[in-house]
Structures are given as C-alpha cells and as structure tokens.
Design a protein that fits this description.
The complex is a heterodimer of chains A (about 290) and B (about 190). Chain A is of the alpha/beta class. Chain A has nine helices and nine strands. Chain A is elongated and about 65 Å long. Chain A starts with 5 loop residues before the first strand and ends with a helix. Chain B folds into two domains: about 45 residues, Homeodomain-like (Arc Repressor Mutant, subunit A), CATH 1.10.10; about 140 residues, Tetracycline Repressor, domain 2 (Orthogonal Bundle), CATH 1.10.357. The radius of gyration of chain B is 18 Å and the shape is elongated. The chains are: A alpha/beta (about 290), B mainly alpha (about 190). Chains A and B meet through strand 8 and helix 8 of A and helix 8 and helix 9 of B.
Amino acid sequence: MHSKPKVIWIDAVGCNGCSHSFLNLSYLSSLLEKIDLLYHPILDSDEFKIQESDILIIEGALKEDFIKFGKKLEEVIEQLFIHSKKVIALGSCASFGGMFGEGLIFNKENYGKYYTCKNKIINLPGCPIHPEWLGYVLDMLINNRNIILDEENRPKEIYSYVSHSGCVRNEYFDWKVDAEDFGTKEGCLFYNQGCQAPFTHSSCNKILWNEVSSKPRAGIPCFGCTERNFPKVNLFKTDTMMGIPSKIPLGVTKRAYLTLAGVAKSLKNERLEQRLFEYEEINNKNRG
Amino acid sequence: MKETKKEIIMNTALTLFAKKGFYSTTIADIAKEMGMSVGNMYNYFASKESLAKELLMYTSKRFGDEIRKINEQNITSKEKIEKIIDLYFSMATTEPELVDYFMRVYLSNKEIFNNGCEGMLCVSAFVTEIMIFFEEGVRKKELKNQDFFVAFGLFMGYIGGIVFLNNDGVLPKPLEEYTKDVSENIYNALKA
C-alpha cells in the first residue's frame, strides 16, 4: 500500500478565508484521513518547518519583505516550492494576486515569479475557493489522476463552466428582464446590478455553496472572483457603455449578442415582466 | 432566383409607396407595374402587411450592412459619424424611396407593424450597428458615456429631420452640402 501523500498548507498574505471555506467540506474528515497533513494554519498539525511535500497548498498572495515564521515569506515559499512535487495556488490571491499582492504564475496583468514553473502549479482562484473545488483537486491528486487545465492553469472540470450556468435567474436573462430592486427573487442581475456570471469561469451555480445556494440565487451579483482582474470596483453596478453592458457573455460576438438581446426584449415574456405571485393572481382572477 | 424576383418586387413596391402613398397602393398596383398576375404576386407575399414587414427588414438590413462596413474601419468616431451621415444623405438622394419608406411608412404607421415587428424585431440589423458604433466610441473614450436612447434619438432624429426638410423642398442647398455641419453638430453633442 502506498503511503499517504504529504501535504503542507502554508498561509501567505491573505485573510484565511479559503481555510475557513474548506472547513465546510462535507467530506472533510474522510479526505483528511487520506493525507498526511504536515502543516496547516488552523487545523491540528505539527509545528511548521521546511520539509518535503507531495502537495504544497499556498493560500494567500506573495509580497516582498513580508515576514513569516521569522523569515522572509518569499524565501519560505521558495524553499517549500523547491521541495514539493505539486503546488496548489489556493484562492484568487495565490492565483492572481487578488486583494493583497502577487500571484504565483500570474498577476493581474503580468506574469508572476513562478511563471516558468507553471507546469507544477494548479490555480484554484475564488474568493474564497469553493470547498468542493479543493476537495476535487486533492482527490484527483491523491489518486494520481490527470487534471486537465485551462490556459490560466485552472482545472477545466471546474472552470470551463461560467458562474451563469445553472443560475435560477436564467429565464430572466434569456428574456432580458432586469431585477430593478435589490433583493428581489425575480429578475436578472446582469443588466443593472453588476452580475459578472456570464463571463466568469466557475461552477458556483452547478456545485452549490454549502450544498444550498449561490450569490445570484440569493440576490447578490457574481463578483467575478475567479478571474484575473478581481476585484473590480463598483461590484453592485454593471459597467455600461451607452447603456450596453461593457462585457458580454463568452463565446458570442457583440453583434450576435446585441441582435439576440434586442429580439428577446422586443418579444417580451409577460409572465416574467411582473412579480411571479402577482402574475398567478391575475390568472386566477381571469379564470374565476 | 426567387429571392431576386422578391427583391425586384420590393423595390417596385418602394417606388409605388413613395409615389402614391402606402395606403393608396394595392397589391394589384404592384403586380401591374411588375407585369405579373395578382395571383402570382401572392406566391411571393401573402399580404400587403407581410410585404410591408419584409420591406422593413430589407431596408433595415440595407442600412445595417452599410453601417457595419463603416464600423469595421479603423477610423475615429468623429470620422465614422461623418461617414454614417454621408451614407444616410446619399441613400436619401439616390434611393429616396428607401429612406422615405423608413420614415413615412414605418415610423408613421406603427399599427401595420404591431404584429410581428414590435420593438427591434424587424429593425435590429440597423439598430445593432448603431449600438456597436456608440459602444465602441465610448470604449475608445471618444464619445460620452450616456443613455443609449438619448444618443440614438439625437443622432437619428436630427438626420431624419434634415432629410424630411429636404424631401419637402425646404432646404435651400443640396442635401450633401449639409453633411459636414450636421456631422460636426452631432459629434459635438456626443463627444467625450
């Protein structure tokens, strides 16, 4: 029998949000039994030391002259990196720099310090990461399975979807009916309220959070946290240019999208133009 | 083959509508002008109403295709404005029936188009290109970011109005001589 993979989880510059998110994994205890967790900032583990690992998880961003364990963070990461077989850049900070600093392979606009070692790194952006995304990657690595990555080193199994896939508001998106007020159950959040789901690579509406919900389902726009340019400003407002959303759904030309949107809006879906409960009432009255 | 014939019928209809007015022109008039039987005309268009809608899509596509060519050029928004206006005024001069149909039939007789041409349905080829022109102008920071319809109304209302004045014989100079000044005014109103 093979020995368990040795895992080191190091927290760089960040908020530990990904650690906390991971604690919500429904099968956390059984997953932990399959690994030898040498160090974790929150979970029980031995004292930190530089040592070899099969999987190095880096949570948080890199930053020059940041002190960690009494040493420069950069040197700690470098030593751990050299002595690891596979590296997971966990969360938007480690993947792209995010809120706090520099990413491993990428920064918001440039390449990061570890770009030349990118074959060893799997990016798992998200602010925080979905616990099941990390669960999936760890399971695949534990079982020596190949993980297919996209051009930003994100697993395609998770990030080839967009956050929009599976959103319960898709009917409103299709018929171009906006949610005019914050917090309503009806309406699409893409046109006014800043939702970035149609062009954000993630499976938030496919693999639900805590197995029950997602931001758009709960009435909050997708913040685009798995993308390189996260965070943008004005997260609750759609960027428009002459009234037209400045970013459009992936895979279509602007011309095609505007044509389709114009047709859908012109045809009007009356059921969706009003509150769902009110529509039922009118129908009942008519029937009565 | 049939499509070409359809186009000839549409162009004939446009000419007659411009000359006699939409309501005074019958399918029989168009057939007579074409040298076709009325029965054969109905093989191409089921009714005058369906002809009217197809004509709207046809004129919209004609405008849209031309504006698309302008949109795809690597020039400034200011230059694009002048080219779009030049296009519109040229079409109003060389194919007056096309512009006439758009303004006098479509915009003035919405009841014909309520069933099947609501909103953008039949004019999307044209409106989409204007949207793309505006959006790209804002993206390049050449045009001011404002409400689409405020800009659209200013643009189309203005040039439509000038063509109207021209058609009524009010303008003292030929239409194309207004291109530069009108373009300048529209640019000043839309620029960033």
